[in-house]
Amino acid sequence: MRKRTWISFVAGMALIAVGARADDKPAQPPAAPKIVSISVQPNGLTLEHARDLRRVVVLGVTEAGTTVDLTATAQFVPDANVVRLTSDGYFEPVAEGMSKVAVTAGGQRTHLPVLVKSMHSPPVSFVRDVMPILGRTGCNAGTCHGAQKGKNGFRLSLRGYDPAFDYEAVTDDLSGRRFNRSAPDESLMLSKPAQEVPHEGGYVLDPKSRAYATLRQWIAEGCQSDVDKTARPTRVDILPAAPELAMPGTAQSLVVVAHYPDGTSRDVTADAIFSSTMTDVATVTPEGMVTAARRGESQIVVRYEGQFGVAGVTVMGDRTGFQWQDVAANNLIDTFVYKKLKHLKIQPSEL
Residue 339 — φ and ψ, nearest 5°? Predict the structure, then answer.
């Protein structure tokens, strides 16, 4: 009897399941919001030399006034043979001169001015090229060679605070055996992080990456030092500075620009280190892609070569039907509080 009852129960559940599948209809994806205008950040590019690569973020404004990231679907068409777009989304110099790039996204169109100052390819800088790679790969972190005594006899300054010390460490330690200037690919500085030979720190450097190519070129150029004549950045900017994400699941790409004492700047997104202060509100990938998780606010902290930047992220969530009701401000503090609450679509509670 129990066996028959169990069989009947299973058969009944199977019929229910089949019926449910038959009645199910595929969920229709929400219609894409209409874009009324687009903008590009930065709003202009100046490329200093042949190795100066830059990225941009394309933002669209919808009819409802919300901002969406259109970078992934935007089309870029230069109107002169001055720059070209690489497969990984960077603008690369082709020739000296000024140009404009036509940017199309969401049915809207704008232009991005571009200036290429020089096609000279300067030597790879230890301070501005190699040191950031050591930081991004975690080589100078406290859990690796940046510890007080380092690891496996190799010690770097914590988070690269002392470039001179680090240059001596990587070039002179072990009698310089970490580098093979005549055959760069055989250098331990490349083969260990790429895990072509055993490396306790694991696989941290892709041989096909720009970082690997930069390190290789620096070795081929003779591992030159520019510690005494090259300054580190004085600040970093994050674009967009205060991204707003409409709903959980939406994403926003970031661009990080470092500024130097000589007035120059460079795109350092690939070497910057990202973290989120509220991961249950918004997460961020190592490449700088922010994804909304729930309604709220978070701060995206960016660290690069001793400089820090913060981008405040707001996830609005579904506020359909919200209508702000004016409330009398009794003091200056109320004015600022109500401005923030109105922006977040939160009605103040009664006294």
Answer: -60, -45
